[in-house]
Amino acid sequence: MSKYHQIIRYPSITEKNTILKENQNRYVFEVMRTATKPQIRKAVENLFGVKVVDVNTMVVKGKKKRMGRFSGYRSDWKKAIVKLGEGQTIAKFGEV
């Protein structure tokens, strides 16, 4: 597995993210917690063969969850919103 596959874990496909993709040409990925914006840009460009215009990142805090009488927290994770150049798309993204 290449280092780019380690940086980008998987795409985040939700209703809100699908609207972002269709209207603003932005794609959302779950990425490695220690990944930087230049690393994410390079990984998307090399994996999908597109030109990245902008990268925004945020750390999503884990929620508190209970399983019977036991409680714990989900892990924190990092989300990257990637804007592609005009006319650029990622094939098969979010298609079922």
Textual characterization of the structure:
- Helix content is 28%, strand content 36%.
- The two termini are 25 Å apart.
- The mean pLDDT is 93.
- The chain has 96 residues and is α+β, with helices and mostly antiparallel strands.
- The protein has one domain (3-84): RRM (RNA recognition motif) domain (Alpha-Beta Plaits, 2-Layer Sandwich).
- It has a 4-stranded antiparallel β-sheet with strand order 1-2-6-3. The chain has a two-stranded antiparallel sheet with strand order 4-5.
- A hairpin with a 2-residue loop joins strand 4 and strand 5.
- The relative contact order is 0.25.
What is this structure's SSE topology?
Elements: H1 3-7, E1 8-11, H2 15-24, E2 26-31, H3 37-48, E3 52-60, E4 64-67, E5 70-73, E6 77-84
Antiparallel strand pairs: 1-2, 2-6, 3-6, 4-5
